[in-house]
Amino acid sequence: MPDARVSVSPGLFGFHGGLHVEDRKAPACDRPIADMPLVDEYILPLHMHIGAPAIPVVQAGDRVGRGQLLARPDDFVSAAIHAPTSGTIRAIEPRPLPHPGGLSAQSIVLEADGEDRAAEPFEPWPDYREKTPVEIRSRLREAGIVGLGGAVFPTAAKIATANPGGVETLVLNGVECESTISCDDRLMQEDPMAIVRGGQVLLHTVGAERCLIGIEDNKPLAVQAMQAAIDRLAAEEDERRFEIKVVPTIYPAGGEKQLIRSLTGIEIPRGRHVTDYRMLCLNVGTTAHCWRAVVEGRALTERIVTVTGGGVSHAQNFRVRIGTPMAKVIEAAGGYTQGVDRLLMGGPMMGFALHEDEVPVVKATNCLLAMRPADRDPTPPPQPCIRCSRCAEACPADLLPQQLYWYSRAEQLERAQDYHLFDCIECGVCSAVCPSHIPLVQYFRHAKTEIWYAERERAKAEHAKRRFEFHNERIERQKAEREAALAKKRAAIKAAQEKKEREEGGETAAEDKPAKKASGAAAGMSIEAARERARARKAQAQQTRESSDATGSSERGGADKGEDE
Amino acid sequence: MWMAILLAVGLAVAFGVLLGIAAQVFRVEGNPLADRIDEMLPQTQCGQCGYPGCHPYAEAIAKGEADINRCPPGGEETIRNLADLLGVDPKPLDDELEAQEGKKVAIIDEEVCIGCTKCIQACPVDAILGAAKQMHTVIEPECTGCELCVEPCPVDCIYMVPLEEGVEAYRFPLPESAHPVITRGIGPRSGEPAHA
To answer: Is the pLDDT of residue A521 over 80?
Structure first.
């Protein structure tokens, strides 16, 4: 099957660079999607999407049903998390993540009860056409829909940013250019109607006039199935907004900007988004889930995962509940083969090696790739860059990877940004074509995260500085206020004393006048004296405070200051 | 001869006046060099450099009174940046000072705290919350890890713990230092918690 190709649609524009990669989708792409059996424990990291981590709304000990909300989105760019099955929340604690650095993060741990009792919280909307775009968007947000192509950007936020200018063209991305992944391919073959119906929901939501579905020419069965679904809708409902565009198989044709360029010829400039050009691009799997969330009222609790590679016995696509430990998925695929030494999440180009296989399947997990040394291209040690510029010719983002390499390597991060480091999509084409085998993308990832880190540190330092300045200002102000209050009090006492003296000395009228004359000077002197006394008292207080430190008892003067906080 | 002298004196006076006016008109508030140095410092306000806060230290460096290697929280990176800015050679951290391993944050053992407010007074960034005879607690995101609250505590209930920075602060290593990641947990399960 993989050799069979359909003819490429006419009138495509193509994109710069790219790479022909060896197709390794078989045999997983020829086998139907299997349902992953339920497991005992699910781990749901609170941060498995782009944006702010979700905030848990359940506690340890709570019983939940499938689809019940476990964590709510915290921000505009954030996503809800739902229970993948029914059971009891066991803990909310740090658990290892599928992360290139093998880090851990807060996760909800759900112990399944095996009943898989549904608690779908959403009302199905078969009449979604009567709902406003805002209602549908908030449904997508509540249902935890994120981009399932791998970027996991919250779909509701993406649509919201597209809406102000309106959307002309909806692009459904069925390209799936990574050489081992076939989850979208299988979905298009097995459930094309959900995708096209989801497309209808999205067309209604964003008010677009047409929908292009991009599919690579190495997926003839998917193209056929999708075409059949479109033809059926055309016959039944006179739906004529859909059109399939078959694109040539060049990695990374499935990149958002690359696909838009191929289909429309529009090159999205640096710093702009696809949505700025009245287009919206969503993965086909995401689209199918939009349909389920809106029309069937189901939250995102499962996704299709390609389990493949020479390191696994029975490569296949699985419908996996989010949170299932990867080791269990591998088991369902017949377990590891002899000699497996690496497990990747994602494809061979953009995926990363996992530190362990007890980490959960998250919303971004499109592929689990188990590898033996024989499955990998040999990676000879890197040689010096010879400035052949092959990377620049191949870069689909039109960057100059070798310049970026120099600056990233020398930690000249500002210069790297001048060469538009952040336009790099980390597709790995430059590393693959490099005759010196320099792992260019690793340098770029390093530089990007270093820049983010430095920015965060700068912001934190700035914040601390402001707080320090405010702290000093407050201390000064409080000191001044205390002194002013003290002086006022002293002056009042002095005045009362003088008044008393005057009354007492009423008989000695002769002395009255000079005394009054001198009172101004005396007052000034008395204030001085009062200050002197206050200072002495302070010093004494300091001494007692120091001595009380040893006994550990709290001290009145300090306590007063504390109450000022 | 006199003409030449007059001309020279006249020019000198004219330029003097001009420079004087320019100094008034284009006056720069503060010390721009000290501000740039201050930006490079970590703003922990810990005072380990011997100055009461980062800005006074920055001013002392700008005046040439202090060396650039007296900031333990900034570590080597800050010294390197300062050396770059000032055009001097980087040098190791001053021997008197103790190098700091990673970032820290203060934690108050709330069971032990007697509510004396001494740490509150010591905190340069107001990151400790509490009142007299009430237990205190550290607002962690505001804590700069300066350790100034540790010493005043009469019951030693404040600890400095390494700051856990979370996933967002992850930095990909440079490939040279990156060793290939070997998958653990494959083959017979060891049974121990995977994240230990």
So the answer is: no
Q: Specify whether the CB–CB gap between A249 and A258 falls below 8 A.
A: no
CB A145 within 8 A of CB A290: yes
Q: Which helix (H) or strand (E) holds A118?
A: none
Quote the pLDDT of residue A119: 86
Residues of chain B positioned with their CB less than 8 A from the CB of A458: 39
Give the Cα separation of B196 and B184 in Å (integer): 12
- pLDDT at residue number A40: 95
Residue B194 pLDDT > 60: no
Whether pLDDT at A386 is above 50: yes
The reply to whether B186 touches chain A by the CB within 8 Å rule is: yes
- The whole-angstrom separation of Cα A118 and Cα A120 is 6
Q: Which of residues 79-138 of A touch B (CB under 8 A)?
A: 94-97, 99-105
| ipTM for the predicted complex | 0.77
**Residue A519 pLDDT greater than 60, yes or no:** no
Q: How far apart are CA A173 and CA A559, in angstroms?
A: 65
Residue-range domains of chain A with CATH: 1-30+122-298 (3.40.50.11540), 378-492 (1.10.1060)
Region for residue B58 given its phi and psi (left: phi exceeds 0; alpha: psi -120 to 50; beta: otherwise): alpha
Q: How far is A552 from chain B (nearest CA, A)?
A: 5
Does residue A533 carry a pLDDT above 90?
no
Per-domain residue ranges for chain B?
32-86, 104-164
One CATH from 1.20.120.450, 3.30.390.30, 3.50.50.60, 1.10.15.40 for B32-86: 1.10.15.40
Q: Quick check: B73 and B44 in contact, CB under 8 A? A: yes
**Cα B59 to Cα A273, A460, A467, A472, distances in angstroms:** 44, 21, 19, 17
Interface of B with A in 104-133 (CB under 8 A): 114-118, 120-121, 123-127, 129-133
> Higher-confidence residue: B188 or B59?
B59
With bands split at pLDDT 50, 70 and 90, how would you rate the model's confidence at A507? Answer: low
